[in-house]
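Table 4 source record.
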Amino acid sequence: MLRLFLLLLLLGAPAALPAPRRRRGAALPTGTYLTRYLRQQVDHFGFDEDLTFQQRYLIADQYWRRDNGPILFYTGNEGDITWFCNNTGFMWDVAEELNAMLVFAEHRYYGESLPFGNESFSDSKHLNYLTSEQALADFAVLIEYLKMTIAGARYSPVIAVGGSYGGMLAAWFRMKYPHVVVGALAASAPIWQFGDLVPCGTYFSIVTNDFRKSGTGCAESIRNSWNAINNLSLTDAGLQWLSNTFLLCSPLRSPQDAVLMKNWLSETWVNLAMVNYPYKADFLQPLPAWPIQEACKFLKDPSLPDKLLLQNVFQAVNLYYNYSGAVSCLDMSETATKNLGQMGWYYQACTEMVMPMCTDGVNDMFEPQKWDFDVLSEECYRLWRVRPRPSWILSMYGGKNISSHSNIIFSNGGLDPWSAGGVTQNISDSLIAIVIPDGAHHLDLRSRNPLDPKSVQQARALEICYMKQWIKQARHSH
């Protein structure tokens, strides 16, 4: 889901897909785990074919109490499961306190869990089994397998944990399989970013507010930069100046290349909002603490002439891509870690994960871009020969009609643009919303840090409290 923003950008440049991302930086260290594989059905819901594949999962039981101790089960999202494992320190931090086993399950079609190997992304026929429903079924089968094969785990209460798309899966897992998981922690999970449940522009308004609050003139400088790029892209000399100023690995050759540059810059600002953490971190890129504040130090005067303004924009962008100082040129095809499965997510966003987004250039700092489902549909058909079904997720998981469910924590950061589609108010006594005002994208799932704001410390304490309640309730039921 971290890659979803690109689908909006495709509407502005429908002929261009960014190249695969290259990995920068290393993941955070975690505890020791074992890598295992389980043979899963390619299709859990049909009986005509009996194809199978190997699903990868990671397991750590150093702190597990072997008499039906709890299991924290990470519902893997759109990428390599080892990367999510290494960036979900909260589970490792609480494992000893809860005497819990940790399991990190890889989502089908990502990492090593490819149903058709190298052919998995070859066409829509091979991609047909890439759905959230099939992934949830994989998780359910895996948990039943673990309970049957691990001594002392038969009655272990299982809690689903996930962030971003993984958080959506954690919530939906509890909704659809309440007999398998006793509760779910759904961090930064925009389960309402579908249909007309929330305004399409809120996401980008939050991004803009992050920059507006981080420095006077910052958001306004970015808003003014689009026209500056437009003006310079009208001539070959201007395109050459942009290429040189931004140290682009591939020089701009046409105004269409300048459109791609603006898309690249837009995604950079969005990514900064998502990873605006209070300490140095290496999630999408190696970055300093509060990186938006650092970037905004270069963007104080929105009234500068075009070239001076864009030189400042480069300094801000260079902070994101070259904080380490080791990069000789900036690659517009590179905005985040390669551990995110770009092609798989494009397909999901072209089928069931249809999240309307738009900008107006007034309430946000981006160029105006209306939500146009028809354009998206045509682009998806061109890419995959499939048409998106915008209302299916609402039919499948209930939209806002979820009050009959129980034992789900929805946590959202006030700085995170994905909170636009998140649950930010309690729905019932057991459907709990936790808002972290100083939190960016699933900050609560990251490892404890001395620089953590008090709000995220309190959020984690409350999450642990609810988990203990769920575990206690499950034990009483047996």
